[in-house]
Design a protein that fits this description.
single chain, 56 residues, alpha+beta, globular, binds zinc ion
C-alpha cells in the first residue's frame, strides 16, 4: 500500500489518500487537485513531486 498526503507537497490541506500503486495515487490526487487546488492538469513537475512524496 502507498500513502500520499497534500502536506507532503507543502500544501496546507488535509487531503490524504492510499492506494496500491503510484499511478492510482496520482489519478486520485489529480481528481482532488482539480477541484481543491485549481490544478485541472498535473504538470510533469507536480507528478515528479508527488512520486517523491509518496510513502511506500
Ligand atoms: Zn489537497
Amino acid at each position: 500500500m502507498v500513502l500520499f498526503t497534500c502536506r507532503d507537497l507543502g500544501m496546507d490541506c488535509s487531503f490524504e489518500t492510499t492506494g496500491t500503486t503510484e499511478s492510482e495515487i496520482i489519478k486520485k490526487f489529480g481528481d482532488h487537485a482539480g477541484s481543491a487546488h485549481n490544478m485541472p492538469v498535473l504538470t510533469a513537475d507536480v507528478i515528479f513531486k508527488v512520486k517523491k512524496a509518496i510513502k511506500k
